[in-house]
Design brief:
Elements: H1 17-41, E1 49-50, E2 53-54, H2 66-75, H3 81-93, H4 95-99, H5 107-122, H6 125-139, E3 142-143, E4 148-149, E5 163-165, H7 172-182, H8 186-202, E6 212-215, E7 222-226, H9 238-255, H10 258-273, H11 297-313, H12 316-337, E8 352-355, E9 360-364, H13 367-380
Antiparallel strand pairs: 1-2, 3-4, 5-6, 6-7, 8-9
Length: 388
Amino acid sequence: MRETIEHQIPSGAEISDSTKVWAEGVWAHILNKVECTSKRIGVSFPHASVNGIYDNMRPSWWTAGFWPGILWHIAADGGHENLQHIAEQCEERLDEPLNALTVHHDAGFIWTLSAVANYRVTGNERSKQRGLMAASQLSSRFNIKGRYIRAWHDQKQVNRAGWSIIDTIMNLPLLYWASETTSDPRFRHVATAHADTVLEYFLRPDGSSYHIVQFDPETGERIGAMSGQGHAEESAWARGSAWTIYGLMLSYRYTGEERFLIGAKRAAHFFLANLPEDDVPHWDFRAPREEDTPRDTSAGACAACGLIELAQVVPDRESHLYMNAAERIIRSLHDNYSTWNLDQEEGLILSGTSNLPGGVHVNTPLIYGDYFFVEAVAMLRGAKLRLW
């Protein structure tokens, strides 16, 4: 391991000793579960738990980085060489889409949590090169006229050159890291321009967010919006809100630009104001609410990470609001949705919702929900490493 991990938590709100003790107990559960499930999951790319068993997607699938990301959070503590070896092998398999030049808008989800994580923890130069290659391909998707990073590739006869999605805000740290690593501001310029577009066209005045915004790829003008994985065009998809909180907060952390912090806080206040009694969101804040309306634990876990980061950079009078809210969410995920007593379940937290309108993976563990839960618990136990 590198003697000094450069990408560390900023100074800010203190985490109480009692919270750290609680988080250490949860961390022990995580270690036990991951040590066990890693023996079967191994070098693969899970997305969702199907009947208790994590599936295995292709290396180019957008969730391919979350499993190695979990392993790197654990390996950074030392003493888990077997898990680190799995993470390294996953990274090597990701050379397939990287060398085939098929990188898409979710490059950050994939290579920030695999190659860049490896470089941050070990200083591996090959991992650094992989991260820079992925950043270069991601930045090539930037539309100069519209100042957005294009989402997806074309599908059949659908031209998606003008489509951009809120998820991409979470992929920008790959570009910020590339600028810092190469001392070349071009990557940062692309990331900042896209983040500004999120503020202007994705984030609504009330703090909710659009999932998909369409632009004219020739002129850059906004054409309209689509519901995507949310209930409706003007609804409030919970995971999109979580992406917005954390993504804008990360843009603030890298740039110091106050407008990104203000945007992150606006999104956070909307998210917190619409949480149900157990502090774990339903899949869409504006969807019709029935007794069986699905939750999305992945949205709660991701938002909690963003809230913890927010607590580190705001004045003391505000920091407790965000830190206490994050802790309530993570404690609820642990108390009400964890799988420590479910030996036949490989996921860590239940009740994730991948894509309800598409009928895909509803009410089941999701690898990105597990990842953000692990990251949040690591933060609450006082870990210094940050992968984004």
